[in-house]
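Recall the central idea of this unit: under ordinary conditions, the amino acid sequence of a chain determines the structure it adopts. In this exercise we apply that idea directly, starting from the sequence alone.
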Amino acid sequence: MSRNPLADQVWRQMSALVLDNKDSWRRAVVERTGLPWSRIRIIRRLASAPMTVKQVAEAATIDAPAATVAVGDLEARGLVVRATNPDNRRCKLVSLTDAGRDVVAAIEEIDDPAPDALAGLGDDDLVALRDVLLRLGKRTGLQEGHRRIVAADARHSATPARA
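Accordingly, the structure predicted from this sequence is:
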């Protein structure tokens, strides 16, 4: 719990809204890519930057041995490659191959419509919510990911993004 009960309540409500409405999209991603969701989670995290296996484990909230197995599987599929980390030659950096980037692009193309409860909000509420989420993204270091999402969504919207 944070020291702000209202923030905790909003977080729980946002989490529930997202988690309760992602199943069909997740199934579509797994079906389209042929990869288990555990591998998709790793590929999506590697899309922003190469990581060590330890960082992959932390980002995907799995233990290091599971991350090693998952990275090995993705490497065998030709979706990632391990290379010596130039900043620390004792560890390897995992990065996406061209085929891995193609999988990320395929994932981003899969339709993920807003649930009815969100889609039913008025434009003013949606713009306000989007702007708050963009500010949160900047505070949490997710700004670049949000820029990519907003740029992709701008093709589908007449309302310009305010970053």
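Residues 14 and 110 are 22 Å apart (CA to CA).
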